[in-house]
Design brief:
heterodimer, A: mainly alpha, 9 helices, 74% helix, globular, B: alpha/beta, Transferase(Phosphotransferase), domain 1, 6 domains, six-stranded mixed sheet, five-stranded antiparallel sheet, 28 helices
């Protein structure tokens, strides 16, 4: 039957920002990407004082270029990694030429030593890690207590039996708790990816 | 940040991987996500003037629903009426009125709405299938409930007929198709929107009949006549007619049918139709051509039909005395026979006085509960009963009190000492009979007095206060004092006070009580002991509470009781404990004592004969200064007696020795 338009087409955050130019969507998107870049820079061991400026710069480029993203040419997160990497590289090259102080950027040589594709992959992985981290934070808001405790212990590599002993639980409960958190975590990852990468 | 590292990250891969894996995580989510057509598998259920109703599968909620849409070819002029129906239905929330889930616009911008689809048949089909009159009347009463609800909300249906009533196999009934429905209050806030929907408006303009010939009321034929609840009542009458006759009251060609409708149905016609006599008047009244002559509310109609289906004379039938008696006998032949038999028995019993008590007693033990059931039924009918046999109530009430009084006597035993656990049941039965007697004759003071007493014994002080002091004697006042202090105490045979509550009552009794009224105190204690499944410790605490009651608080006195060995000892600095023991005599016999030890300081003679009725193996009177025995025979159950040395040479010792009692002598007390 032709009764199906009643459900409003659901827009992702990215979709809302790009297609509808929704202000709050832009704001939310901005917060997410900025969070991700902070996260990445931290892992690339950029000093916090430099990081703030860098985040600003990458964000400006990202927001400018977002409208040019073409989903036919590849995954969003690959595109995101590429834009981020090239912006960072440009920033450092510029700083180098201005300050001529090679030493200060010695730590960030990784940004220049590796091939671009490898760097892109590294940054893409950071994005994935960032999303997973955010997803876990969301899960923690809805599932509390023992289940989360069990899951976190399992992340540290402990076996179910060891977790059971440590928390005084049945081994079967450990499996159940872990499965429950895993399930919600994956749903959250999925929904974050939908929100932030598709439109 | 790296706390969870790769472990956490590994879930990312899995989460965004192909759907086969995703299906494992949440197959339902995936399915829900992939629904692109919400309603599938349409199947036409029926079509009316305005709309078509389909059975559809709702992919998102995964159930079948009914979907109503405007008929093809009906343009925007009809949208209003269509949406109005949906909204009118959503404004009604009743288990027997169809529920509308959503009201929406389809891809072409045409309105549709979805509804409950539970029932698989309509009342029309059920009638055709030949369901029993009893079931059909039950369905009819449910329909009345739904219509009554709608009327209370100001909504009239205006198209009630068997095919608009859904019935399922579990007895669920739904009143559907509110397409002609409207708000009775035309000044309703948004009546402007509706005005063109009123009779004479759009629908008749387009040739749509306002109602269904055969079920519609005469005022629906003339559009200018006002319609209200009574219009629906006419249709309900027609449905009732169809239920009992198997066909609609007006049939034939439309014009013929409408003509008959205008004329109405006469009582004579109804009598010639195959309608049960009790329903003729109901149908005639509901189907009156003049709304003023119909039932004025669905409530009245429903009550009459209910009365009929319960076997009562209906209000419309204006019952005469004989018919009433006939119905009464028909309904209660068992209880009437029992009652008559019983009354005959009672008369015979009064005639032969010496047999009476025995007859009643035998009757009371075996028949108390049966009698109670019968009385229950009779009382249920007493309102009706009263209009026919007003004075019989009074005499029945008095007779009930007599029977119940015998039960009380039985419960308390011949000596006034409750004799066993049977007491609780007997008092319970007696209470019920007294209550019935009081209902039959609210001014029956004997019943009130007995109820007062029984409820006091049970410690149902709430009821005691309700009954109030029957006379202004001090006895009632004393109980009222205690009851007023504990008005929340509402105990019965199954729900007993705690030991703490029990003690509190006795402490209070001690303050107001006259010590010589032993019967009720004992009854209270024994009621507590026999009705509660309390352990021996709790029971003993109750007994001690009562023993304390029998002894003045200022008296230096102590009692101890060892339930395991059956040893009870009293000691007092005064001789008054003497009286206490005797006062409490029947309590002591309840305890199954083995040893009783007494110790007084005052030089008062203690007469062994006062222990009459107390069963003990061993009696220790080593602490009693002076013992006498005026009647050695009373101590024949004693096997061992301990006395003070100085008693050795007393004459009664030899007398007791002759009865076979062992003696020991002690130089000091206990």
């Amino acid at each position: 039957m032709d009764m199906n338009n009643s459900q409003e087409t659901r827009h992702s955050l990215l979709g809302r920002a790009l297609n509808l130019d929704d202000h709050t969507a832009w704001q939310e998107l901005h917060d997410h990407y900025a969070g991700f870049i902070h996260f990445t820079l931290q892992r690339l061991r950029v000093s916090p004082s430099d990081a703030n400026d860098l985040v600003q710069e990458v964000m400006i480029t990202l927001m400018k270029k977002l409208k040019n993203y073409d989903s036919n040419k590849g995954r969003f997160r690959s595109w995101l990694a590429m834009v981020t990497r090239s912006t960072l590289q440009m920033h450092y090259r510029k700083m180098q030429s201005i300050e001529k102080k090679h030493d200060r950027f010695k730590d960030h040589l990784v940004l220049f030593e590796e091939q671009d594709e490898v760097l892109d992959q590294i940054i893409e992985k950071q994005w994935e890690a960032y999303i997973s981290d955010q997803a876990l934070a969301r899960v923690e808001k809805t599932i509390r207590g023992r289940a989360i405790e069990v899951f976190k212990l399992s992340l540290t590599g402990l076996k179910a039996k060891e977790i059971a002993d440590q928390l005084g639980l049945q081994e079967s409960s450990v499996y159940n708790f872990r499965k429950r958190v895993q399930r919600s975590l994956m749903l959250e990852i999925r929904s974050l990816v939908d929100e932030l990468e598709s439109y | 940040m790296d706390k969870w590292g790769d472990q956490l990250h590994s879930f990312f891969e899995e989460a965004v991987e192909e759907e086969t894996d995703w299906e494992l995580v949440s197959p339902s989510f995936l399915q829900l996500q992939n629904v692109d057509e919400k309603y599938t598998d349409p199947e036409l259920l029926g079509a009316g003037a305005l709309k078509e109703v389909y059975k559809c599968y709702d992919q998102k909620t995964r159930r079948y629903i009914a979907l109503a849409k405007l008929r093809e070819g009906l343009d925007k002029d009809f949208y209003e009426a269509f949406i109005y129906e949906a909204w009118l239905t959503t404004s009604l929330s009743h288990p027997n009125i169809i529920k509308v889930f959503e009201v929406e616009l389809d891809d072409h911008g045409r309105p549709y709405f979805t509804m409950d689809l539970k029932a698989n048949r309509t009342l029309e089909q059920v009638i055709r299938e030949g369901a029993s009159e009893e079931d059909l009347l039950a369905t009819f009463l449910t329909v009345c409930d739904a219509v009554l609800y709608a009327h209370d909300r100001g909504v009239i249906h205006l198209d009630l007929k068997p095919c608009n009533i859904q019935c399922d196999q579990f007895g669920e009934v739904l009143v559907c198709d509110w397409g002609l429905g409207k708000y009775m209050d035309l000044d309703h806030h948004d009546s402007a929107q509706r005005s063109h929907l009123e009779v004479g408006g759009m629908l008749t303009m387009y040739g749509v009949v306002q109602g269904t010939p055969g079920y519609m009321a005469p005022e629906q034929i003339h559009s200018e006549r006002p319609k209200d609840e009574r219009t629906d009542i006419f249709s309900l009458g027609a449905i009732l007619y169809t239920i009992v006759c198997g066909r609609a009251p007006f049939t034939g060609e439309e014009s013929e049918c409408l003509e008959m409708t205008l004329k109405g149905v006469s009582r004579a016609e109804l009598l010639s139709a195959s309608i049960p006599k009790g329903l003729v008047d109901i149908c005639a009244k509901a189907l009156s051509a003049n709304p003023e002559e119909r039932y004025q509310s669905v409530r009245e109609l429903k009550q009459d039909v209910k009365r009929y289906s319960d076997g009562y004379a209906t209000r419309a039938e204006r019952p005469d005395y004989l018919r009433f008696c006939y119905l009464f006998l028909k309904r209660h032949h068992r209880s009437v026979i029992a009652l008559v038999t019983f009354l005959v028995l009672l008369m015979a019993g009064i005639g032969i006085q010496q047999h009476r008590v025995q007859a009643i007693r035998a009757y009371s033990e075996q028949q108390a509960s049966t009698l109670n059931d019968e009385v229950e039924e009779v009382t249920h009918e007493y309102e009706v009963f009263a209009s026919v046999m007003a004075d019989s109530q009074q005499s029945l009430s008095i007779k009930l009190v007599r029977i119940a009084h015998d039960l009380v006597q039985e419960a308390l035993g011949r000596t006034g000492t409750p004799t066993g656990p049977n007491m609780v049941k007997l008092l319970g039965d007696a209470e019920l009979l007294f209550e019935k007697a009081l209902i039959l004759a609210p001014d029956n003071r004997a019943a009130a007095a007995e109820l007062f007493w029984i409820n006091a014994v049970q410690m149902d002080f709430k009821r005691v206060l309700e009954i109030g002091a029957v006379t202004d004697t001090a006895w009632y006042e004393r109980i009222m004092h205690v009851a007023q202090d504990y008005p929340e105490f509402q105990f019965d045979a199954d729900d007993r006070p705690s030991i703490d509550q029990f003690e509190r009552v006795f402490l209070r009794l001690e303050e107001v009580w006259s010590k010589d009224d032993r019967t009720i105190i004992e009854a209270m204690l024994f009621y507590q002991l026999y009705s509660s499944e309390s352990d021996s410790i709790t029971q003993n605490q109750c007994i001690i509470a009562v023993l304390n009651y029998f002894n003045s608080p200022e008296e230096s006195y102590s009692a101890s009781y060892q339930p395991d060995s059956g040893d009870l000892s009293f000691s007092s600095t005064q001789g008054l404990v003497h009286t206490s023991v005797i006062q409490a005599g029947s309590l002591l016999s309840y305890l199954n004592l083995k040893t009783l030890s007494l110790e007084f300081e005052h030089a008062i003679e203690f007469d062994l004969a006062d222990l009459r009725g107390i069963q003990v193996d061993e009696l220790n009177l080593g602490g009693v200064p002076r013992v006498v025995c005026t009647d050695p025979q009373t101590c024949d159950s004693l096997s061992r007696l301990i006395l003070h040395d100085r008693e050795k040479r007393e004459k009664y010792v030899d007398e007791l020795k002759a009865l076979g009692c062992d003696f020991s002598f002690v130089s000091s007390s206990l």
